[in-house]
């Protein structure tokens, strides 16, 4: 008891009395980064699944029969170009140039659509040949991993269009800059995941 | 008080309050050129089969992938030890540890499971 009975002025302070101000959106970047990290865990599990099941062809077609590296290289180029054009959009945004920002966002979206189209063409081609997700464990893992990435890109494009409408309506206000910054992280993150996909699935698949 | 000055003040506020590292034209282009090289070389190695040994090719391709991921992190995602007072980096390190455990553990365990528990084709054991 004696330790707690002290003069108020000498009482140890266990908490910050005056919390420092939190402006709106000050923690969005960190929060979004933590979301991306959790997304990273999803992809890690899908990569691990592919790593475990990637060799189980069930006497069906393997990577060498199915993959066309020229197509994958083209796809990778599309995603890489969309990454740099999004970078240009962010640079234009920093200078408050609405038209230039919108222009680069359109280009980014087009590259994203090209990526998706090529991926869907590849999927269609494989399924038409009978290499469906049900064919073997390898194909199930392949379609889940690559399909999840493609789904992320799809939602990224929907988000991109939404933001373009918002920038068109409200201009480059603080909230829109924050949103564009989040999408920037999302988009570049998807490119990072794609590095894993083309290396782990396609290139190493061809070497198996 | 012009609208422009107002915007500028806001622009600064955003970056100050979000603690977001800036990319410049120079850093984006550096990242882009590096990642083009780091993408093209592995594709070329695998497609041309320049290195006869698949194991070595795979190892080199994996090294290129890791380097390219780091390049993207630095030049496109603007990762450093200072953003968000180091919390971004902490979250990344934590994630990498979990990913490392999950990936290495799954591959290791399942590899041994496959090797050690493959059904034997020696039918005499079944009798």
Automatic annotation (TrEMBL), chain A:
Transmembrane segment boundaries: 32-59, 71-91, 103-121, 141-165, 186-205
One protein family per Pfam: COX3
SUPFAM superfamilies associated with the record: Cytochrome c oxidase subunit III-like
Keyword Transport annotated: yes
Keywords, in A-Z order: Cell membrane, Electron transport, Membrane, Oxidoreductase, Transmembrane, Transmembrane helix, Transport
Purpose: Cytochrome bo(3) ubiquinol terminal oxidase is the component of the aerobic respiratory chain of E.coli that predominates when cells are grown at high aeration. Has proton pump activity across the membrane in addition to electron transfer, pumping 2 protons/electron.
NCBIfam families the UniProt entry points to: CyoC (TIGR02842)
Family note: Belongs to the cytochrome c oxidase subunit 3 family.
Assembly, per entry: Heterooctamer of two A chains, two B chains, two C chains and two D chains.
Name the UniProt record assigns to this protein: Cytochrome bo(3) ubiquinol oxidase subunit 3
Upper taxonomic lineage: Bacteria, Pseudomonadati, Pseudomonadota, Alphaproteobacteria, Hyphomicrobiales
From TrEMBL, chain B:
Transmembrane segments: 28-46, 58-77, 89-111
One CC-aspect GO term: plasma membrane
Record key words, sorted: Cell membrane, Electron transport, Membrane, Oxidoreductase, Transmembrane, Transmembrane helix, Transport
Keyword Transmembrane part of the UniProt annotation: yes
Compartments in which it is found: Cell membrane
Membrane topology, from the record: Multi-pass membrane protein
Coiled-coil ranges (or none): none
A GO term, aspect molecular function: cytochrome bo3 ubiquinol oxidase activity
Keyword DNA damage tagged: no
Gene Ontology annotations of biological process type: aerobic electron transport chain; electron transport coupled proton transport
Subunit note: Heterooctamer of two A chains, two B chains, two C chains and two D chains.
Function per UniProt: Cytochrome bo(3) ubiquinol terminal oxidase is the component of the aerobic respiratory chain of E.coli that predominates when cells are grown at high aeration. Has proton pump activity across the membrane in addition to electron transfer, pumping 2 protons/electron.
Family recorded in the similarity comment: Belongs to the cytochrome c oxidase bacterial subunit 4 family.
Protein name: Cytochrome bo(3) ubiquinol oxidase subunit 4
Species of origin: Ancylobacter defluvii
